[in-house]
Amino acid sequence: MKDRLIALIDSALDTLTANGVLPAEARQPVRIERTKDKSHGDFATNIALMLAKPAGLKPRDLAQALLDALPADPALAKAEIAGPGFINFFQSDNWLASQLEAALADDHLAVPRPQRPLTVVVDYSGPNLAKEMHVGHLRSTIIGDAVVRSLEFLGHQVIRQNHVGDWGTQFGMLLAYLEEQKAEEGETELSRELANLETFYRAAKLRFDESPAFADRARALVVKLQSGDEYCLKLWNEFNQVSLSHCYAVYERLGVSLTAADVRGESTYNDDLPKVVADLDAAGLLTEDQGALCVFLDAFRNKDGDTLPVIVRKADGGYLYATTDLAALRYRAGQLHADRILYFVDQRQALHFQQMFAVAREAGFVGAGVDLAHMGFGTMNGPDGKPFKTRDGGTVKLIDLLDEAEQRAYQLVSEKNPELGQDELRAIAHAVGIGAVKYSDLSKNRSSDYIFNFDLMLSFDGNTAPYLLYAYTRVVSVFRKAGLSLDQAQGEFLLREEAEQALAARLVQFGEAVQSVADKGQPHLLCAYLYDVAGLFSSFYEHCPILSGDDDALRASRLKLAALTARTLSEGLRLLGLTPLERM
């Protein structure tokens, strides 16, 4: 509805500009806000107050001129001037009912598909295959996945890119240790060693630090690996497959949509790195600085005013992350034909991506029409406000965090539902525990840091996963009591009470909420929307009896409103990567 009103006001402003009432250069973007007091309408704008001075009119006079020029629209019952020059808009109940009917009748909840679907490449998760996934990988993985789901729901073609760290000097160390273990313990013991990647990595690092001979062997293996030695590539591939299997186990546990087909690691671009450097040179962008090849762009300077370099080849001939990222950008724009490329990477990498995007455009690797966006996020912190760690200061494995979440959820649901069987309790605990971890993160603005707290995220009060999952079960329980399925609700929508109207008005904004996630990469906007819907249903449930009463038409209408609420909550939860429950 907001977009619809903005289009109407823009049309009225066009008329006033064409008639000379408003100077063209005075135009500003129209902002529409939902009103808190429904007696003042459903939406309001202050555009007349903003443009009155350049128009040379009193705000109320300009507001009246806007209303006179406003095109007729079936969605609007009326619009009126309030206070010093605000314009309040009242939705039409008949139009609202028609929108509800369309949403309930459509598997896609009447959310429109784009006329020209975009190809959107999304880079997210990207763990380092040298180690098991830890809590630092959670945000990229689940935020990226929620945005991917939203984009696909809207009808865009999404290409997932899991840019795993599967190349670099640390692999020489790991391959050397892997080689030793094969010789000493054999294949069976080796697979047992690799079952705990963190232990394996620490043991390899200890050998590297303590044994000069081992360190020399590790460095030699790096050279051989990078030159394509068949034996080294075999060991490297074996290690990566085991390491990736750990990632897939976490993805399955989290319920994210990444698969083996989405992996395109750093090693993929290895053969293209010399060509990237050559093409940067051909474009006149390279400068040699102390033996290293760099790109200097005037837009990036330090506090002293010195231009910051983007190093693409070190003095020793080695390449850096920047070179690989440039190769990936060129591949995604040129080979995947991306319209948008989104990166869900820690906010601390903001400068890196600003530089990569600028260099890629200067070099012609990415055309001007391709939207490049770094969707940075803050850190998940412990109670001390510092990045989340174990009690002894070590890195928390993501799988261990998920285990604890499920165990805590199991204790919680067991206490509430002692009559349920073990299988059902475990299934509910999985949905609640994993959902709680994900929703606690997704409900925060991604650019902000947040404090990880099991007690808060598993609470049934407030904007939490248990609250929303329970809200859904509460709606479907109405249909169990009625002996009906959700698709059996019949009749017309009769929006007589304020609680009905408020819930209905919010339900038809589902598409706007999903679109905002797709546009801004901010899943918390969908979380806030679902929390609003759950709260409005609670008020509706309290003030508008659904199954009791003698008015069959009103009962049918309220059942239909409940059915659309259930479907909206269910779809929204699924887009966030949560599993709706029939009971809990």
From TrEMBL:
TM stretches of this protein: none
Cellular location(s): Cytoplasm
Official protein name in the record: Arginine--tRNA ligase
Keyword field: Aminoacyl-tRNA synthetase, ATP-binding, Cytoplasm, Ligase, Nucleotide-binding, Protein biosynthesis
Species the sequence originates in: Alcanivorax xiamenensis
Main location, first listed in the record: cytoplasm
SUPFAM superfamilies, alphabetized: Anticodon-binding domain of a subclass of class I aminoacyl-tRNA synthetases, Arginyl-tRNA synthetase (ArgRS), N-terminal 'additional' domain, Nucleotidylyl transferase
Motif ('HIGH' region): 127-137
GO molecular function, one term: arginine-tRNA ligase activity
Domain Arginyl tRNA synthetase N-terminal: 3-91
Enzyme Commission numbers on file: 6.1.1.19
Annotated catalysed reactions: tRNA(Arg) + L-arginine + ATP = L-arginyl-tRNA(Arg) + AMP + diphosphate
Record InterPro entries: aa-tRNA-synth_I_CS (IPR001412), Arg-tRNA-ligase (IPR001278), Arg-tRNA-synth_N (IPR005148), Arg-tRNA-synth_N_sf (IPR036695), ArgRS_core (IPR035684), DALR_anticod-bd (IPR008909), Rossmann-like_a/b/a_fold (IPR014729), tRNAsynth_Ia_anticodon-bd (IPR009080)
Any Pfam family matching the protein: Arg_tRNA_synt_N
Signal sequence, start to end: none
Gene3D superfamilies linked: Arginyl tRNA synthetase N-terminal domain, HUPs, Isoleucyl-tRNA Synthetase, Domain 1
Aminoacyl-tRNA synthetase listed as a keyword: yes
Subunit structure: Monomer.
The protein's enzyme class: ligase
